[in-house]
Design brief:
This protein has about 325 residues and is an alpha/beta fold. The chain contains eleven helices and twelve strands.
Length: about 325
């Protein structure tokens, strides 16, 4: 009889009631679901459990010390910054994550943001709601300049699976794609240094991880190097862009616009320069690019695969030890 006990600490961050959780239940003797868990509840809820599942709940060194039965942590995401990996290794706990599950969802969201900027979608939508089209002297309202993507140049920072998917979609719109070099990475002939890349692109999209080397990768200096009227898209991680510098740059009209799905602190409870009501030509979505039902169901599948592999002695997608 399978006696493995698993506890999902924040399953409501993944399942909106629209997912099939049967694959996730299959590897375990018992699966306990908690919609969310506060920090002080984690150790108590994991007592006696061999497997912890977490999307964003922090599992620190103190939890490993209080939960000696813990053998496996399944992260319902790619990022593992909420897990103390050093403590996991010290206590012999395996940590596995999920990978590549959101590529189609995030790629289409990236192009949606770029298209919304290029076609001035928010401005035209607001104009119709304000009655401006109804009062127009002709059949159409063309108050906001529209930009065609065909023939324009897209710069990509981060060309893994997701960046590659975005490049493919951009090329379908007739865009030329240039790849930028990331700090701390070995030089490659097909990667341009930022100083060479930025002046050439009509749009720049970010698909790289947030590390010490990439924090504030796009600051005031880099924004100044971009073409007047260029677009900046960030569906990767908040912190890659200096948010105050971007707000200042948008206000002085140097860029054509920016669109983000991420901020440096999420949720932004204490304000953020990019939340200002008077910020022009800026679109913000609430870290929702990854969240299609299909992508979230893929996470369920990968969590199940990771659990089954570990229990069979063949761990998958291991990030620690």
């Amino acid at each position: 009889m399978n006696s493995t006990r698993a506890v999902f600490l924040d399953h409501a961050s993944l399942d909106l009631g629209d997912l099939d959780l049967a694959p996730l239940r299959a590897p375990f003797g018992e699966l306990v679901l908690h919609g969310r868990s506060d920090a002080e509840q984690v150790a108590e809820r994991l007592e006696g459990a061999q497997v912890a599942i977490s999307n964003k709940v922090r599992i620190g060194a103190e939890v490993f010390e209080q939960c000696p039965d813990l053998k496996l942590i399944l992260v319902a995401a790619t990022g593992t910054n909420n897990i103390d990996l050093a403590a996991a290794r010290q206590h012999g706990v395996t940590v596995s994550n999920c990978q590549g599950y959101g590529t189609p969802s995030v790629a289409q969201h990236t192009l949606m943001l770029l298209l919304a900027l290029a076609t001035r979608l928010p401005d035209y939508q607001a104009a119709v709601r304000a009655g401006r089209w109804q009062q127009a002297p002709q059949f159409c309202l063309l108050d906001f300049p529209i930009v065609e993507l065909e023939g324009k140049t897209l710069g990509l920072l981060g060309h893994g699976e997701l960046g590659g998917a975005v490049a493919k979609l951009a090329e379908a719109f007739g865009m030329r794609v240039l790849l930028g070099a990331l700090p701390g990475r070995p030089p490659r002939a097909d990667r341009l240094a930022l100083d060479e890349l930025l002046p050439q692109v009509d749009a720049l999209t970010l698909h790289c991880p947030l590390t010490d080397a990439t924090r504030n990768l796009i600051g005031q200096r880099e924004l100044n190097l971009m073409k007047p009227g260029a677009f900046l898209i960030n569906t990767a991680r908040g912190g890659l862009v200096d948010e105050q510098a971007l707000a200042d740059t948008l206000r002085r009209g140097h860029l054509g616009g920016a669109a983000f799905d991420v901020l440096s602190v999420e949720p932004p409870k204490d304000g953020n320069p990019l939340l200002a009501a008077d910020l022009p030509h800026f679109i913000l979505t609430p870290h929702s690019a990854w969240g299609s039902r299909e992508a979230r169901q893929r996470i369920v599948g990968q969590l199940s695969e990771n659990a089954a592999g570990f229990l069979a002695g063949e761990p998958r997608r291991v990030v620690a030890p």
